[in-house]
């Protein structure tokens, strides 16, 4: 039941209608129960086999949280530390078992074979539960927050279960923090017209970026990656340039839809992206890309490591950064290519750490003709190119594929645009379709710049005081975007981040 | 909340209205591929006996030389193959009314659209056919077919919108849907219903079947087989001999689409192919396009000759007469 599918639409209309029925909306418990049941139905619909795991993890962490808090209150610091350690280990254990065990077994097997030992074990085939990386991080964060005494454990199991399984975010994030999410479930959510309107417009913008930009670009990037040896160097390069945009449109589109659905239910979800392609260096990029993950890692991995290595000065910061990014890389998947992807980004941080600019956050200002200044534009382009190169590692299934792709790209046809025009037309079936997709992509990039101070492109905080003429234009934009989503929806019915 | 729901409904209805306008008020492509359906109907109505009627998808449209078969079998072979995506639940009942006593009907249901998915057609084709035939037999569509038609409306709007852009570019409002590369058009068919315009085109060679999920296990739709059995009985009741045929394809296409339990399930329903499936399969070098579904001229000749041999035996044999 993917966002944007007819089934999801029916499911959501039903959930929404019951959620705001007078007897339900007047009772916090009923609303929370309804959200929990809907979320379990949604998760079970995606993979019924893994629903017991989600419920089991919720029950376990509910108990651990309360036990930990009791130990803290009774001043048993050592016990509290052990409980925290156990809680973190349990989450990591779930991740390792479902996501990394096969990878470790294969890697150790290859290593032993390389050393001349006769090893014969078959590859493990463990089904990975959907969203496991997201909900385990939520749960680990919950335990750490209790240990740090930033929050008290949730006493209401239904509320806690809703936090873990909340259906807009359970499959692909954003990774919500308990201190931001749980208090919202304390009071009943009455329908707030402005908040819902904002949610609906964010949902629409998300749908446009996902279905019209990402899914249509996927036709080119998937087609080229699937058979890169038969494409010209110029087309391979074009695919590399478009893949970051596709990935951003895909994941940001999903996040916007999730946040929009949350708002329609009166719940504010953590923001996940803040116009990452307007970043002028890699540090700024990571502050604006998949923010719920990077902030999680920054709080629970980087900062503790940085404190531990503080005696080493800048070398300590570099070490903490490299470990942090290595883990971010491996979070995405159990493959060496993901590890290298993380390491690559960690290495890009080193010049910034040495020059002391990695933490600087200078606001982006418009220059002449409302465009970014020349220096900023140049830095944005370089950052984009570095990200695009890194995504080759992310996208490839093996290192030999990375080498193969890059060696084909180094061909003489790098500047042969006519061959690319032919290949792209063949992929899309018509050059006009590709031009329409390109138009959507340019619209997305333009909106990124024009709406850089907004949470999403259609956000409007001044709807009531807006002159009628502007209101009409807004309506036309809504209708045009809805039309594009209906008609120009791409055929790729998958979300890239579902695999993580 | 009422105001909010009204606003959302208004925006969606306006967008849907715009889509409907694009679907129904874009100047028609007079040479659209699916418009050939009307010609196929005229063929089955008017062709002289003794007849061999081939009913299938684009595999038979692009895979048979009916004149070659007519000359060898001394029967009037007509090819009603057009597009697998129409679904045989639309075509077989429609053609039934024009079948006469003594006809030999070779049915070639599609491995995926028919045997696996149930023969109701696919999104994006059925709506195009309905528009091309001015909603012929719309009242006879089942609920699933209506859902497919509705689901296909955005695809149709997309094609029309693209065609409008092309028309503006070309300053001609009758610009066809396919104006780049090989043109799939009504004018490509000959008088016997074969797509003959590709016979002089270059072979594409070995195909990439990534789009067909190679290796995926597919189960046959039993409800469809029961339905097929009933419709065959109706053809037989009209005095026709029905021969169920495997689909014409290249090796890659066959490997990626053939349902693993098809022959077993057919036999459970008292059905069976009149020839071995491998008889209709040719090497990948004979691929013309369509991901391995359409054959080049070389492949057409091989398959037509093989079918002639098989039909020589089958038409005489009482055993295969359902």
Verbal overview:
The complex is a heterodimer of chains A (about 500) and B (about 325). Chain A starts with 5 loop residues before the first helix and ends in a 13-residue tail after the last helix. The relative contact order of chain A is 0.11. Helices cover about 70% and strands about 0% of the residues of chain A. Chain A contains 19 helices and no strands. At the A-B interface, helix 9, helix 18 and helix 19 of A face helix 1 and helix 8 of B.
List keywords for this structure.
heterodimer; A: 500 residues; mainly alpha; 68% helix; globular; B: alpha/beta; two-stranded parallel ribbon
Secondary-structure blueprint of this entry?
The complex is a heterodimer of chains A (500) and B (322).
Chain A: H1 6-19, H2 22-25, H3 28-46, H4 51-73, H5 77-114, H6 132-147, H7 157-165, H8 178-181, H9 193-226, H10 233-264, H11 282-288, H12 291-308, H13 314-332, H14 336-355, H15 374-395, H16 399-409, H17 417-428, H18 431-450, H19 468-487
Helix pairs in contact in A: 3-7, 4-5, 4-6, 4-7, 5-6, 9-10, 9-18, 9-19, 10-15, 12-13, 13-14, 14-15, 17-18
Chain B: H1 2-25, H2 36-46, E1 51-55, H3 58-61, H4 66-73, E2 76-79, H5 88-96, E3 104-107, H6 111-116, H7 126-132, H8 143-170, H9 222-237, E4 241-244, E5 249-250, H10 251-257, H11 262-268, E6 281-282, E7 287-289, E8 294-295, H12 297-316
Parallel strand pairs in B: 1-2, 1-3, 3-4, 5-6
Antiparallel strand pairs in B: 7-8
Order of helices and strands of chain A: HHHHHHHHHHHHHHHHHHH
Main sheet specs of chain A: none
* Rough outline of chain A: globular
| Dominant shape of chain B | globular
Oligomeric form of this entry? Answer: heterodimer
Return the average pLDDT of chain B rounded to an integer: 88
Give the overall average pLDDT of chain A: 90
Number of helices of chain A: 19
Number of helices of chain B: 12
The percent of residues in helical segments of chain A reads 55-70%
Low-confidence parts of chain A, pLDDT < 50 over ≥5 residues? none
- Estimate the strand proportion of chain B: 5-15%
Number of strands of chain B: 8
Helix content of chain B: 40-55%
Using a beta-carbon cutoff below 8 angstroms, give the protein chain pair with the largest interface and the number of residues from each chain.
A-B, 26 and 28 residues
Order of helices and strands of chain B: HHEHHEHEHHHHEEHHEEEH
pLDDT under 50 segments of chain B (min length 5)?
210-215, 318-322
Give the percentage of residues in beta strands of chain A: under 5%
Profile the largest sheet of chain B.
Answer: 4 strands, parallel
Spatial gap, N to C terminus of chain B: 62 Å
Count of individual beta strands of chain A: 0
């Amino acid at each position: 039941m993917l966002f944007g599918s007819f089934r999801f639409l029916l499911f959501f209309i039903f959930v929404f209608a019951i959620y705001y029925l007078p007897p339900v909306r007047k009772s916090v418990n009923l609303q929370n129960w309804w959200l929990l049941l809907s979320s379990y139905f949604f998760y079970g619909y995606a993979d019924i086999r893994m629903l017991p795991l989600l419920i089991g993890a919720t029950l376990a962490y509910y108990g651990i949280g309360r036990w930990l808090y009791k130990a803290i209150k009774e001043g048993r610091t050592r016990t509290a530390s052990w409980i925290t350690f156990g809680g973190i280990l349990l989450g990591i254990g779930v991740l390792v078992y479902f996501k990394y065990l096969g990878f470790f077994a294969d890697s150790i097997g290859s290593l032993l074979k390389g050393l001349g030992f006769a090893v014969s074990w078959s590859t493990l085939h463990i089904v990975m539960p959907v969203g496991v990386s997201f909900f385990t991080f939520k749960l680990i964060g919950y335990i750490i927050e209790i240990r740090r005494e930033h929050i008290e454990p949730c006493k209401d199991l239904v509320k806690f279960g809703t936090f873990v399984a909340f259906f807009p975010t359970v499959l692909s994030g954003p990774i919500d923090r308990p201190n931001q999410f749980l208090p919202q479930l304390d009071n009943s959510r009455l329908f707030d017209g402005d908040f819902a309107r904002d949610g609906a417009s964010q949902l629409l913008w998300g749908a446009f970026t996902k279905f019209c930009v990402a899914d249509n670009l996927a036709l080119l990037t998937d087609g080229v990656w699937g058979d890169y040896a038969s494409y010209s160097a110029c087309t391979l390069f074009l695919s590399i340039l478009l893949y970051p945009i596709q990935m951003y449109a895909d994941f940001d589109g999903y996040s916007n839809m999730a946040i929009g659905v949350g708002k329609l239910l009166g719940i504010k979800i953590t923001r996940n992206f803040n116009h990452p392609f307007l970043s002028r260096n890699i540090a700024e990029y990571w502050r604006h890309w998949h923010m719920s993950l990077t902030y999680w890692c920054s709080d629970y991995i980087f900062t503790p490591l940085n404190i531990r290595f503080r005696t080493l000065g800048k070398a300590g910061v570099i070490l903490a950064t490299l470990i942090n990014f290595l883990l971010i890389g491996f979070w995405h998947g159990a493959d060496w290519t993901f590890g290298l992807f993380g390491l690559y980004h960690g290495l890009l941080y080193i010049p910034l750490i040495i020059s002391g600019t990695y933490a600087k956050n200078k606001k982006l200002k418009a220059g002449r003709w409302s465009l970014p200044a020349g220096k900023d534009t140049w830095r944005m382009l370089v950052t984009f190119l570095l990200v695009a190169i890194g995504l080759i590692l992310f996208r490839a299934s093996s290192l030999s594929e990375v080498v193969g792709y890059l060696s084909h790209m180094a061909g003489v046809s790098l500047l042969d645009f006519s061959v690319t025009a032919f290949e792209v037309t063949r992929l899309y079936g018509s050059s006009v379709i590709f031009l329409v997709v390109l138009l959507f992509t340019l619209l997305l990039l333009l909106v990124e710049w024009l709406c850089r101070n907004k949470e999403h492109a259609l956000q409007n905080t001044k709807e009531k005081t807006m002159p009628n003429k502007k209101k009409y234009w807004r309506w036309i934009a809504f209708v045009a975007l809805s039309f594009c989503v209906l008609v120009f929806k791409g055929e790729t019915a998958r979300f890239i981040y579902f695999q993580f | 909340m009422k105001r909010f729901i009204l606003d959302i409904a208004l925006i969606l209805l306006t967008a849907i209205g715009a889509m409907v306008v694009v679907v129904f008020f874009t100047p028609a492509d007079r040479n659209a591929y699916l418009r050939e359906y009307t010609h196929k109907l005229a063929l089955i109505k008017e062709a002289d006996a003794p007849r061999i009627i081939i009913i299938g998808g684009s595999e038979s449209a692009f895979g048979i030389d009916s004149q070659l078969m007519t000359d060898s079998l001394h029967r009037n072979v007509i090819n009603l193959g057009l597009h697998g995506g129409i679904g045989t639940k639309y075509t077989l009942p429609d053609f039934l009314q024009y079948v006469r006593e003594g006809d030999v009907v070779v049915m070639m249901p599609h491995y995926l659209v028919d045997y696996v998915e149930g023969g109701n057609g696919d999104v994006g084709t059925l709506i195009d056919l309905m528009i091309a035939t001015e909603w012929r037999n719309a009242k006879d569509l089942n609920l699933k077919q209506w859902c497919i038609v509705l689901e296909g409306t955005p695809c149709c709007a997309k094609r029309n919108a693209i065609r409008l852009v092309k028309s503006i570019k070309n300053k001609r409002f009758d610009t066809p849907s396919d104006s780049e590369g090989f043109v799939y058009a009504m004018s490509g068919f000959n008088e016997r219903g074969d797509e003959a315009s590709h016979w002089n085109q270059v072979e594409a060679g070995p195909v990439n079947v990534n789009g067909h999920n190679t290796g995926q296990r597919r189960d046959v739709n039993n409800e469809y087989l029961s339905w097929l059995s009933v419709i065959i009985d109706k053809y037989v009741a009209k005095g026709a001999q029905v021969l169920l045929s495997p689909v014409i394809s290249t090796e890659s296409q066959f490997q990626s689409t053939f349902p693993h339990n098809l022959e077993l399930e057919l036999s459970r329903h008292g059905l069976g192919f009149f020839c071995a499936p491998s008889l209709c399969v040719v090497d990948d070098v004979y691929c013309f396009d369509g991901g391995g579904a359409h054959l080049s001229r070389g492949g057409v000749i091989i398959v037509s000759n093989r079918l002639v041999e098989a039909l020589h035996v089958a038409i005489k044999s009482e055993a295969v007469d359902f």
